[in-house]
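In the current project phase, we have settled on a layout for protein records. A sample record is reproduced below.
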Amino acid sequence: MDIAQALAEARRAGVARLDAQLLLAHRLGRPRAWLLAHDDCPLDAAQSDWLQAMLARRAAGEPLAYLTGESEFCGLSLQVTPAVLVPRPETEVLVEWALACLAGATMATAARVADLGTGSGAVALALKRARPDAALVATDLSPEALAVAAANARRHGLAIEFAAGPWWAPLAGRRFHLVVSNPPYVAGGDPHLPALRHEPLQALTPGGDGLDALRAIVAGAPGHLWPGAWLLLEHGHDQAAAVQALLVSAGFGPPETRYDLAGLPRCTGAAWPPPVARR
């Protein structure tokens, strides 16, 4: 079997051509462009067997990133495993907003930033790379996820502190100038969950209406934020109003919502405490 025949086999298996090319490029250690110019290159038995197994898994809905063990986020190549969610492009909105908050902030010491529920470490790593002067701490309930995040930090030479535990629990007595989180927010009965069955359920949904993790983060935030600090939260496309209400009820300043490239409300945040109006 040569590369052209392998790609034809992928098509018959119901796997997108691009996915098949990326799988082959990963296995062969070649750029995808090389495959196009060498589609008559034969695959050996081990390569063919590996590809058949990967095509079957991809056709069954397993994310490409789990098959290659790699995913890209904000220009960073990250290790991913089934212990963490595959980073989504829409989460880059959270990073961009966080960096804008840091750029506009004035503080006497280096910015202290926390990423709650870090997963692969994608958000924390993107922030640390852009702002090496900031002190980053990232938390997660899953030891397996923290191991992946720590490996990614070592891979890119980025100094981040990792702490195990739910939300604010590992951060007792500590305050921050900025806190970000992409928590589980999918409702327990959401019809899209079955299609995400290969990803860790606890990182996708807290059950119920999907807001429990967001409620816990907002409720605990005031005791961990310096005056003027921002809390930025990613959420579902239909949850912006609910998250705004949570922030207002907790005493935050006027909430703001940012939109992803699809035009959907993706992140909501507010400053703590609310600004004092001058007379």
Summary: The mean pLDDT is 93. The first strand starts at residue 70 and ends at 73. The CA atoms of residues 73 and 268 lie 20 Å apart. The chain has eleven helices and nine strands.
